[in-house]
Amino acid sequence: MADEEDTREVLFQDWEGPDKTGLTIEHTSGGELLVKEVKGESPAARSGKVYEGDQIVGATIYFENMSSEETAELLKTLNKHKVGLKLQNKGDKSPCYSPLSTPCRSPMGTLTWEGKTQFGASSPEIIL
Fold first, then answer.
1. Quick check: 32 and 58 in contact, CB under 8 A?
2. Rounded to whole angstroms, how far apart are CA atoms 37 and 47?
3. Are 34 and 25 in contact (CB under 8 A)?
């Protein structure tokens, strides 16, 4: 696997699969997923950040232009994989509210907070 310092993320705004992005992807017998070819004048080539022989070690998928049905189906297909979720607080509930009254956890499994009150303040300020 590639070192973290050699890892880079390339954002494709309109991903429609490797063919339309200009990539040929190959599976190696060792279980790696590699960029076999970057086609000239393709979105991948124009990015200047994708090279033949690069190992694909992960992907971030943004849900902004996906229907809730597409998103739900995608999440259902992910089993026993490392997944980080980008979450937003909706409604009037506290960001750390849990129906089971358990503390909320970050994807890394830790939550650090420091309570600070100001004179006359009605609730502590939480710094994450």
1. no
2. 14
3. yes
Angstrom distance (rounded) from CA 63 to CA 40: 29
Q: Residues 38, 19: contact at Cβ < 8 Å?
A: no
Q: What is the DSSP letter of 4?
A: G
User: pLDDT-derived band of residue 71, with 50, 70 and 90 as boundaries?
Assistant: very high
User: Region 15-28: what's the mean pLDDT?
Assistant: 92
- Rg, Å, the chain Cα set: 21
The contacts found for 49-54 with CB under 8 angstroms, 24 or more apart, are 49/8, 49/10, 50/10, 50/23
**Could you identify the residue written with the tokens 């393709």?**
42
Q: pLDDT tens digits for 29-60?
A: 999 999 999 999 999 999 999 999 999 999 88
